[in-house]
Design a protein that fits this description.
- The structure holds three protein chains of three kinds.
- By secondary structure, chain A is mostly helical.
- In chain A, about 75% of the residues lie in helices and about 0% in strands.
- Chain A has a domain of about 180 residues: MetI-like (MetI-like fold), CATH 1.10.3720.10.
- Chain C has two domains: about 210 residues, Periplasmic binding protein-like II (D-Maltodextrin-Binding Protein, domain 2); about 160 residues, D-Maltodextrin-Binding Protein, domain 2.
- Chain C contains 15 helices and eleven strands.
- In chain C, helix 3 links the parallel strand 1 and strand 2.
- The chains are: A mainly alpha, B alpha/beta, C alpha/beta.
- Chains A and C meet through helix 16, helix 18 and helix 24 of A and helix 3, strand 2, helix 4, helix 5 and helix 9 of C.
């Protein structure tokens, strides 16, 4: 009976945990943006913050950077994923790439960005391997690659991380799109594999993966940690500049930052609308293309190209991790040596204790948040099942809302808001802030398998006189062990990778592997970055390995669950 | 009538539109067969009786079982057993644990183990306690599902196209086994099917629903 | 001591609200026992981080104070934090107990009454600080008045790789000429990074015929005229910078790997011993040396300050006092550890303590106090703030 009363509250609690901080944070941003910060003796409304913002010489470039990074990273990763899937799904190379990319999904953005920088900088590993024999360089060339003015390296850093994400999302959508038969039929009609897929399967798949694509777009436009590591500084992207303004001792800068945050929000909304319009245009062009009956003469070339691009993404992240490992063990490593003079444990001895401390904090936060998110999610899904609720399409968008609103738009406001509530800075507020971003991912990861569970199992169990809780604990949850652990691992990885919420809401007191690693970026100590980057990657990867291993061990004698 | 399963003026609507109406008493040991093409709402009727009707259906009327109105009882308190066309053995439990799930609580561990062994023995599956259900043949699974249901001591039995997945030879065998045991335990049985053979074999009243 | 603390706790119902008198050192150490001090200090240098960790071990052993290093990328973050806490009414137990600070950040916090004090001159170790000989009572010309306590001396040195650039340079004009002849081999951290801003001030101090105007606050009347030569200098220099000035290293330490890889031949540092330390850590090749300009270079002191709303002021004072101890100072000056200049007066030390310093090998790339020459005074912070802002407008957006 208790549970019955408690359960219906969970969906509301979940929405509150997810959207409450967003709304509070936006409010805390909106007021200062119009010059209203009574605590500092400033009362609005006034347009001065916006006037100051538009006076900043770097603004046009910073806005352009935000827009170009977002559109390019999203467009290119989407194109790569769609063309790979179109040309290769169901084949051996596809499965190989899928197996390579899945674990890379959990590599934190910061670690991947460091890896990329260590690979392609003028003094990076690629340049070292080719020098001096191929290039003739005995000193690194003075080339602007990392932190380039147009943010191309930053865009590349985002692409290598978004391709695995979009690929896995696409794979999930393919299961419901009846893709194989459509491709077989169009091939029988003389279409190339790739063209046939694009003309018959793509529209269905795209409709399903649209929300995550929007998330990628919003994220890429406003990312901070990747931008700090790979992005330009003359000027930086808008979001990085917002964080700089927000941390300026001069209070007036805070107002300008708030105005910038609103501008960032506006840019993201504008870009989403632009993307939506492009979808319409593409749909019209696509229909014309389908009507033309073109069979796809260039299919093999395009497919090969897409596969190569996908492989480059996977190998970049992979070799990025390799070079992080080398640096973490490196003694003196001068240019252009391909490998360090000596390998040593010294760096690990030096930074190891610090990483362990940060790992403890990271794990404590991640485990608490991921478990909380899992309990709320299971509670919501179970309430939906027991009370026959069904979430409308609009409610599903609510799930994506915290991921679509740029972090830089509401986290600084949330910080002020939490302080004014008297909520002590530190671990618990950080956990609440992480929950905002962890919940949607855990929910999205678990919802499909949870709903796909054969409810007749529940009817049978109830007919065998098992109570609703008995059905949940004794039948449903054990059968869903694998998806539950996967959702938990997703939650852990998301929490481990959070930079801005930890930094801003933690007030600097909460040091996780991610905040420590990004803080090291400004110091440039590559050995320390190597150690922290690897620890950060491990913290995100190990849970995924466990999510695979534990069900395999627990259900080793249960054939019926091996592929569940 | 005290014993048995009775459906009193049951009408089920889908989003307001009438789907089916049934009013019938099933005496202990008797079978009522409900026939009709797929989509006519046969399984919906069973969902109403088990208390698992989806929210877009509305039902009026009452279900009485052994002299009690169970129309609004919780699903797990209705004492109605059900078999589906799929065996639906719990894949995470061994054969023995599946049976233990059905067996009513009470009794010492050895006593419970003995009851389970007895049930397996009854359907010719002695010593199958530790087997993974996924490794059984279709006929074996159907027998385990039947015994699991009977061990929960239901007062009525619902069959949802129970034999349609079995091949012809096995089908008659399993069918006889189910009806024999239902008769032996004096259970009222409600079967929905679109198979005339099954209806014939049940030997009871046949109601045909039209779409 | 512990009994005293318990007694104090019993007698005073809210001991946290009543600040202990810094002059009553016994009461300070008694209250400090068991406190946790969050020291917000720039965390980009792993050697500094290691040193702070060592300080933590020592104050834990001697005073029972737990020291947590909150690693900042920018000290201004900590200033903002205290400000927003004040706005939110968090006046008793803020997130920050101690800040590594100087210059504009100190001026801003002192001006806004965000600091606890005066306390510095009441600390026991103030007696051995070289208050006369070193600039520890003014901070970028702003009077300290006991609101922060010094712990290290810094002076600008130029770091060069003798393998590629054998000779020192005597002036900023010489640097301009050398950069023109060797484009892409010099850079400085991007302002408003403190070292980057210091480079700008160093240029101004060196090229102005009379830099004494910088001792007074900048005014709207004189600012443009005084700084015009600086902008002209930078206009000429920027195309010859590393990456043509389209990207800058984030911090001073970020330039070490660039020198080690051979991307840069010349950079600057605010710590005369840092290059020797980096050589010892394999971060720089042994061919690195340092030099100062003919007219000398800018020097200043690093301080620690305690926010007004710290809940562990006594613990913070214990740490601040320990930082000025001969033991900590000698360790900080050891080039194997940090290579920072000491704030202590050698003549005021006991023989045993002085021996700690005499035993130090300064390292191959460290200049002796005599070679470091004249220490030029920091300009008033208003200059640094305006110059850094102006730099961001003029050079922060590359063509």
């Amino acid at each position: 009976m208790n549970r019955r009363r408690f359960l219906p509250v969970l969906p509301i609690l979940t929405l509150l945990a997810m959207l409450g901080p967003v709304v509070a944070g936006l409010w805390g941003t909106l007021l200062p943006a119009f010059g209203h910060l009574p605590a500092a003796g400033l009362t609005g409304p006034s347009l001065d913050p916006f006037r100051d913002l538009f006076d900043w010489a770097g603004l046009p470039r910073a806005m352009l950077l935000s827009i170009s990074t977002g559109l390019l990273a999203t467009g290119i990763s989407l194109a790569i994923v769609m063309l790979i899937t179109a040309g290769w799904s169901g084949t051996k190379p596809f499965r190989a790439l899928e197996r390579l990319l899945s674990p890379l999904l959990s590599v934190p953005h910061a670690a991947a960005a460091f890896g990329l920088a260590f690979l392609i900088a003028p003094s990076g590993w690629v340049s070292r391997l080719l020098s001096p024999v191929v290039t003739g360089w005995d000193r690194p060339p003075d080339l602007l690659i990392v932190q380039d003015t147009w943010g191309l390296t930053m865009t590349a850093g985002l692409i290598v991380k978004e391709v695995p994400f979009l690929l896995l999302i696409t794979l999930a959508a393919l299961g419901q799109a009846d893709a194989q038969r459509s491709v077989v039929i169009s091939q029988a009609l003389g279409y190339g594999r790739l063209t046939g897929w694009l003309k018959t399967v793509f529209p269905r798949v795209y409709a399903q993966i649209r929300p995550p694509i929007y998330v990628v777009l919003a994220y890429s436009m406003s990312v901070v940690d990747v931008a700090v590591i790979l992005g330009p500084n003359t000027p930086p992207s808008l979001s990085v500049q917002i964080i700089k303004w927000m941390s300026d001792p001069d209070l007036a800068m805070r107002l300008e930052g708030a105005a910038g945050a609103l501008l960032q929000l506006g840019l993201v909304i504008g870009a989403l609308i632009f993307w939506r319009l492009c979808e319409h245009a593409m749909a019209r062009l696509g229909q014309r293309w389908i009507a033309s009956g073109a069979r796809g003469r260039f299919d093999p070339v395009v497919a090969q190209g897409a596969l190569a691009a996908g492989a480059i993404c996977a190998l970049t992240v992979l070799f990025g991790l390799v070079v992080l490992t080398i640096w973490s063990f490196a003694g003196f490593w001068g240019f252009p040596d391909a490998l360090p003079d000596a390998f040593t444990w010294r760096n690990w001895m030096r930074f190891g204790p610090g990483t362990l401390e940060a790992l403890g904090e990271t794990a404590l936060i991640a485990v608490t948040v991921a478990l909380a998110a899992l309990i709320l999610t299971i509670g919501c899904l179970e309430a939906e099942y027991r009370f026959g609720l069904s979430f409308s399409a609009r409610a599903v968008w609510l799930l994506y809302l915290p991921l679509l609103i740029p972090q830089t738009a509401f986290l600084p406001g949330l910080q002020t808001f939490m302080l004014s509530l008297g909520a002590d800075v530190g671990r618990v507020p950080v956990m609440l802030a992480h929950l905002v971003f962890v919940l949607p991912y855990v929910f999205l990861s678990l919802a499909d398998p949870f709903r796909a569970w054969d409810t007749r199992m529940g009817t049978i169990a109830a007919a065998l006189r098992a109570s609703p809780n008995g059905v949940l604990w004794r039948v449903r949850l054990p059968m869903l062990l694998r998806p539950i652990l996967t959702a938990l691992a997703v939650g852990l990885a998301v929490s481990v990778g959070q930079y801005l919420p930890t930094l801003l809401i933690g007030g600097g007191r909460v040091e996780t592997l991610t905040t420590e690693a990004v803080a090291l970026a400004s110091g440039g100590d590559r050995r320390a970055i190597g150690v922290y980057g690897l620890m950060q990657t491990g913290a995100a990867l190990v849970p995924f390995a466990l999510a695979l291993l534990i069900p395999a061990l627990v259900w080793r004698n249960r054939k019926g669950l091996r592929h569940g | 009538m005290d014993k048995g399963l009775s459906l009193r003026n049951v009408t089920i609507r889908k989003n307001g539109a009438p789907l089916l109406s049934v009013s019938h008493d099933i005496a202990p040991g008797e079978v009522l067969t409900v026939m009709g093409p797929s989509g006519v709402g046969k399984s919906t009727l069973l969902a109403f009786i088990t208390g698992t009707l989806a929210p877009d259906f509305q039902a009026t009327g009452a279900v009485w079982l052994d002299g009690q109105d169970i129309t609004n009882a919780a699903p797990h308190q209705r004492r109605v057993g059900i078999l589906f066309q799929d065996d639906l053995l719990f894949p995470h439990l061994s054969v023995g644990a599946n049976l233990a799930f059905g067996l009513q609580p009470g009794g010492s561990r050895p006593e419970r183990a003995a009851k389970i062994a007895e049930a397996l023995d009854e359907v010719g599956l002695s010593g199958f306690e530790d087997r993974d259900p996924a490794t059984l043949s279709g006929g074996q699974k159907a027998r385990v599902a039947l015994m699991r249901m009977l061990l929960s001591e239901p007062c009525g039995l619902l069959l949802d196209e129970p034999f349609s997945r079995l091949d012809a030879a096995l089908r008659a065998q399993v069918r006889d086994m189910v009806f024999d045991r239902a008769r032996a335990r004096q259970l009222p049985v409600l079967m929905v099917t679109h198979d005339a053979d099954d209806a014939q074999a049940a030997g009871g009243v046949i109601v045909t629903l039209v779409g | 001591m512990k009994h005293l603390a318990i007694l104090a706790a019993l007698l005073a119902p809210v001991p946290a609200l009543a600040d202990t008198d810094p002059a009553n050192w016994d009461a300070v150490t008694a209250a400090a026992d068991g406190q946790t001090v969050y020291w917000n200090a720039w965390g980009g240098s792993t050697t500094t981080n290691d040193f702070i960790a060592w300080v933590g071990e020592r104050v834990m052993a001697d005073y029972g104070v737990t020291l947590e290093h909150v690693k900042l990328t920018d000290t201004a973050d900590a200033v903002t934090r205290v400000l927003s806490e004040k706005q939110a009414g968090e006046n008793d137990d803020g997130a920050i107990d101690m800040i590594w600070i100087n210059g504009a950040n100190f001026a801003a916090m002192k001006e806004a009454d965000l600091l606890f004090g005066p306390y510095a001159e009441q600390l026991p170790n103030w007696a051995v600080v070289d208050a006369e000989g070193k600039t520890v009572q003014t901070d970028f010309t702003v009077p300290v008045e006991g609101f922060e306590s010094p712990w290290a001396m810094a002076q600008v040195v130029f770091v060069h790789d003798t393998a590629d650039m054998p000779d020192r340079l005597g002036s900023m004009q010489a640097l301009q000429d050398w950069a023109a002849a060797n484009p892409g081999r010099f850079s400085y951290p991007q302002p408003p990074d403190f070292l980057g801003t210091t480079f700008l001030k160093q240029v101004l101090v060196d090229i102005l015929p009379d830099p004494s105007v910088l001792a007074d606050p900048a005014t709207d009347e004189n600012y443009d005229a005084v700084t015009a030569p600086l902008w002209a200098y930078l206009e000429e220099l920027t195309p010859n910078l590393w990456r043509e000035g389209k990207a800058y290293p984030a911090t001073g330490t970020a330039m070490f790997p660039l020198i080690a890889d051979g991307e840069l031949d010349l950079s600057i540092s605010f710590s005369p011993g840092a290059a020797s330390t980096a050589i010892a850590n394999n971060e720089l090749p042994p061919s690195i040396r340092t030099f100062v300009l003919d007219k000398g270079t800018i020097g200043n002191a690093s301080f620690v300050a305690i926010p007004y709303n710290s809940g562990s002021k006594e613990g913070a004072m214990v740490v601040a006092n320990f930082l000025m101890s001969p033991e900590a100072q000698a360790r900080a000056q050891d080039p194997e550890i940090l290579g920072y200049g000491t704030v202590l007066n050698m003549a005021a030390l006991s023989d045993d303590d002085r021996a700690l310093f005499d035993a130090l090998e300064l390292g191959v790339a460290t200049l002796s106090p005599a070679e470091l020459g004249t220490v030029q005074a920091e300009p008033h912070p208003s200059w640094a703030t305006r110059i850094a802002d102006d730099w961001m407008t003029r050079f922060g957006v590359s063509e």
